[in-house]
Structures are given as C-alpha cells and as structure tokens.
Description:
The protein is α+β, with helices and mostly antiparallel strands. 51% of the residues lie in helices and 15% in strands. It contains five helices and five strands; from the N terminus they run H-H-E-H-E-H-E-E-E-H. It has a five-stranded antiparallel β-sheet, sandwiched between helices.
Amino acid sequence: MKKNKGITLISLTIMVIILVMLASVTMYYGNSIISESKIQDLSTNMLLIQATLKGNLEQYNFEVQSIKPEDTTAIEELKGKYLIGKKLAENPEIEQKFNDLGLQEYGYEYYYLDTETLASLGLNDIESSEETGFYIVGYTTDLDTSDEEYTSNVQVINTKGYQNNYTLDSIQNL
C-alpha cells in the first residue's frame, strides 16, 4: 500500500490561519504608518506656514510701535503689507467652516491662505482647498506697550484637520 505524501487538511487549515494572522498584523501596522505620515505631512505644512509668516508679524509689530494708536489708516496699511492672507470676511464659505470649528480666540485677526498666496510665499507644494482643508492663520496684533515683553503669535489652522484636531498645537500633541 502506498502512503500519500500530501498536505493534510489540518496542516492546511493551520497554514491558512497563520497567513490570515500575518496579513491582519501587516494591515494594522500599514494603516498606522499611513496615519502617522498624514499627521507628519499636515504638521510640516503648518510649521512651514507658521515660520514663513512669523517674520512678517515681527516686522509688523516692530513698525506699528512707531505709529500712534489713533492713526488707524497707517495701522491698516501696515496690516495689508505684513499680515499675509485674505480676511475671512472676504470668503463667507471659508469663514463659516472656520466658525463651525469654534476655534476663534480673543486677540487674533484671522486670514485665510489660498493656494496662490501660499505659492507666492514660496510654499508651492502646499494646497489650500476643500479636499485638503483650507489654511487659516490667526495673527496677534494687539500689543500691550506698557509691558516691555510681548509675545507675537501666528496660529495656523487647517479646516479639515486630522481626527478633530485643527490647530498646529493640537496636531503636534498627537
């Protein structure tokens, strides 16, 4: 009588179970790596925007100190020169998306950055759209001149965000 030298049904079942386990572990870690890369990509884009605009805000704060507070025309001219972006009121759709997020803070003036504005800043690879999320920046412009130290800040927000995190600070804390 000849012995069959094939794979038994039990060994085949065990092999399939092991392959399914390996595939599920691989998919879990693959999804984890994809999620991490999305966070890093968004964070990097927001850091680039913040770094680019912070210098402009510092220059604005330096020049505005030489202007009397009553001279609102000169202050608005400086804002137009140094605070890059378009005021949110100029685009009601984006303003509504921003308002829905509930991220408005006292002391900030909010502007949105379209793709053309980002490209003019040398940030050609960053897109501001419905698909990727609109980039909104908040500038602190009210300086307390009685205090010798002041903090100027550029807050960067993406309307799409990542898992209900929309600001640069919250995304970096993930």
